[in-house]
Amino acid sequence: MNRIIIGITGASGSVYAKRLIEELSGAGHDVHVICSKTGDEVFSYETGISPEDFIRTLGGSPKAPVIHQNDNLFAPPASGSFKADAMVIVPASMATLGGIAAGSLQSLLGRSADVCLKERRKLIIVPRETPFSRIHLRNMLELTETGAVILPAMPGFYNHPKTVDDIVNFTVARILDQLGIENTLTKRWEGR
Ligand SMILES: Cc1cc2nc3c(=O)[nH]c(=O)nc-3n(C[C@H](O)[C@H](O)[C@H](O)COP(=O)(O)O)c2cc1C
User: Which of 12, 34, 35, 106 for mutating ligand 1's site (highest number of atoms within 8 Å of CB)?
Assistant: First the structure.
């Protein structure tokens, strides 16, 4: 089983985080969740449930996720000695993305991402913004050159999605692929 840190920020698209956590936790992975303040608020606004209450509903999963407070720099993910396999920031705001690119974030979420980069661990960033400014694009270039994977929430339509769930699953499946976790959320392309 993998130990995955999930960072949730105040970009739109909390449903991606919700779906990903359900998948990982349901499959028995060790999931550690960190929400920024706005991430917490946008998650509640968009999904109708707070991240804390949502995590509580997963109590019956093979492995219940752990939630860490973003201002608690004493939490395990703040240290490189806490051996996480990967971190996913989903959805990632331009503010957090820029802070990580500058190495300047003071929060647990920012520190955990910085730890992933310095330890050469997988950091998957799922930005949600449109259009992008030059600053956004430059920050993404900086991060990809430092080793992060920039995986925009950018659904494909070749699978003929019928529901919002289908569209959400497309991006979550790509994240799971990056994590090396087998999944059947979408049908894989096998040609026409
Ligand atoms: C409803 C709502 C939707 C937002 N959507 C986005 C978004 O898609 N992308 C983005 O970069 N910022 C978005 N923002 C702005 C961020 O929340 C804001 O920049 C905030 O400072 C991000 O802080 P954080 O990165 O610490 O979560 C949104 C804000 C709100 C209230």
Answer: 12
